[in-house]
């Protein structure tokens, strides 16, 4: 398919903004996937192309945090491998099944996350002492990795929430390790989708370049401003993605509500 120059410019601009938002709060796909669909890109190709640009964006953010000493790579080596494995499996399932049934569960999870961040009084940049077993981190990485490969929206927010609530990470450190895990899951699913021919490579690379610049800017903003910028964005991303999903009349929850009130 062919896109006009002005549409490509718009998509690249959206990718920059999405890269910045994704490096801070997750949910960058909330911008890029609808933009690709609005430009006339078929849904499967939109997801694959978004995965290409998102992989470069999360890589840039992860490297930025790593160079700043925010990432404990030794502790996260096995979780990264689990995120890779889970995502590859999820992407393989995606190429064979319709993931629409997940759309009924995701809004509930996102609303729960938004409430958590809105009401939790002690979110901060300092890590807390939490005695969570390493096996739990491995399981969480595998499960969310599978979700990312299979569907994807909100992956960064899910990971950040888990690292804060279950493992006692401070917000900035949670986001730093989220970017590492999210890069691994993005990379694995991208490889599978490329092999399946579900990616518009030239467009994806152009958006990737913009996403990398946005991810670099967003990562530095996170380390400079801490939770002052992060906490509101986490809530906004959760609520915005929930509204977007429920706006779809085919969403199971939306259909149920329409039936109840009709």
Automatic annotation (TrEMBL):
Keywords: Cell membrane, Membrane, Transmembrane, Transmembrane helix, Transport
Highest taxon above the source species: Bacteria
Membrane topology term: Multi-pass membrane protein
Compartment list: Cell membrane
UniProt xrefs under InterPro entries: TM_pro_TauE-like, TSUP
Keyword Mitochondrion: no
Pfam family, one: TauE
Listed transmembrane segments: 7-32, 52-69, 76-94, 100-119, 131-150, 156-175, 187-209, 229-247
Family: Belongs to the 4-toluene sulfonate uptake permease (TSUP) (TC 2.A.102) family.
Protein name from the UniProt record: Probable membrane transporter protein
Organism in which the protein naturally occurs: Qipengyuania pacifica
Taxonomic lineage from the root: Bacteria, Pseudomonadati, Pseudomonadota, Alphaproteobacteria, Sphingomonadales
